[in-house]
Amino acid sequence: MKIPSLFIKTPKHRRFNFIPRHYDPVEEERKQREERIRAELGMTAKEKHELEAEALGYRQRIAGSFRGAKKTSTAQADPSAGLLRLLVLTFLAVWLIAYLHYGSIALYALFLIVPFYLYLKFRKR
Predict the structure, then answer these.
(1) CA gap 60, 68 in Å, rounded
(2) Global pTM?
């Protein structure tokens, strides 16, 4: 095993700077067709820019709608669900420790506690 010294410079990896190029003939054909149609319709560069800006605004509205829906869906979550989950996990952890420490006595205690809890939960008020 080689131990690097303070006086010896360890070699570093070489960096490879490569910019990939991609040619899509379908996209190229689509762009040419759009340009030909715009030329036939007599659209100017300004009208073309306005059309692209309108499409961009449409995309931004869609993205904003998804963000807004995500915010409202998380806001509607029940805050007591996290507390209940924490209580259940704490109870299971304590029961597991008791089972490992006391053995089957903890199992019998679980069989007594669970029916009592279910009775309290589902009794008619």
Answers:
(1) 12
(2) 0.35
